[in-house]
Amino acid sequence: MKPVQVYDDRVVIFGQNVSNCIVCAILCFLNLIITSVSLAQQVFSIVRYGHVFLCNFNESHAVEPFLSYDIVIYDFGLFHRLWGISECIANYLDGGYLRLAWCVSYLSTMLLLALYLYISDKRPPVYLMWPALAMQSTYSIGLLILTLSALPKLLRYVFVNIDRTVILLLTIFSSGVLINFIFTYILWHYFWFSEATLAQSCTKNRERPNPNRRHHQRV
After folding, report:
1. d(CA 51, CA 203)
2. Is 186 exposed, middle or buried (0-12, 13-18, 19+ CB in 10 A)?
3. Tens of each residue's pLDDT in the chain, 219 residues
4. What does the longest C-alpha to C-alpha distance in the chain come to?
5. Which helix (H) or strand (E) holds 98?
6. Is the Cα torsion angle 182, 187, 193, 195 positive or negative in sign?
7. Strand partners for 16
8. How many Cα atoms occupy the beta-carbon half-sphere of 219 within 13 Å?
9. How far apart are CA 136 and CA 31, in angstroms?
10. Residue 19 in 3-state DSSP?
11. Across-strand partners of 18?
12. Residue 12's Cα: distance from chain center in Å?
């Protein structure tokens, strides 16, 4: 028997059934915390320094320890060690504006997903899950691209020049990537289950006889 099996409605872990709704709720709450802290970094940077994201990995030049990490991509200095960059990757892209927009958008979709999961027993419309599915899938793809781009350097540090600090930072980053891939996978399964359940419910309602119509036929 496989230790972990994923179905549309549940996950079986060592023979124990866990509802996908519960798993999604836990991972949604976890990502809400991570995204909220990431957004707080940018709000703090704007209010304190007038910069959208004043991130610096160099501890001797970092203006604030809270801004020395890029939490939303689980980067606590890994890419500084691999590529020698002094600022967060978001700063090199557009100065952090896209990161700010991402945090706000992702946080909004996770809140909507949390609402859907809370009222899931009332069978709400499944289109409420669409934004979360799109954003979470994009999140996982982005982390995958980041992983592949860093892979050559990572292999050298892990197998050739063994660096315990890099291995620790890699463990944190890999854990974040893995959690998000699991979340994406289970979220899609739960969406398919919710969609099928709603469709089945609608079919039963259409097939249910109408007593008023039967009464008119007898008359």
Report:
1. 55
2. buried
3. 688 898 888 999 988 999 999 999 999 999 999 999 999 999 999 999 999 998 887 665 556 788 989 999 999 999 988 888 888 899 898 889 999 999 999 999 999 999 999 999 888 999 999 999 999 999 999 999 999 999 888 888 777 777 788 889 999 999 999 999 999 999 999 999 999 987 765 555 555 555 555 544 444
4. 90
5. helix 97-118
6. negative
7. 13
8. 6
9. 10
10. strand
11. 11
12. 21
Q: Are 131 and 45 in contact (CB under 8 A)?
A: no
| Residue whose C-alpha is closest to residue 71's, from 47, 44, 50, 108 | 44
How far is it, in rounded angstroms, from Cα 63 to Cα 65?
7
Residue among 31, 14, 32, 53 at smallest CA distance from 140: 31
Tokens 């703090």 belong to 44
The first and second tokens of residue 89, run together, are 């990757």
**Which candidate, 53, 75, 76, places its Cα nearest to that of 63?**
53
| Six token digits for residue 24 | 């999604």
Q: Indicate the domain borders of the chain.
A: 21-198
Query: To which residue do tokens 């990490």 refer?
Result: 69
Ordered DSSP codes for 108-129: HHHHHHHHHHHTGGG---GGGG
In sign, the C-alpha dihedral spanning 167, 139, 35, 98 is positive
The residue type of 116 is Y
CA–CA separation, 184 and 134 (whole Å): 10
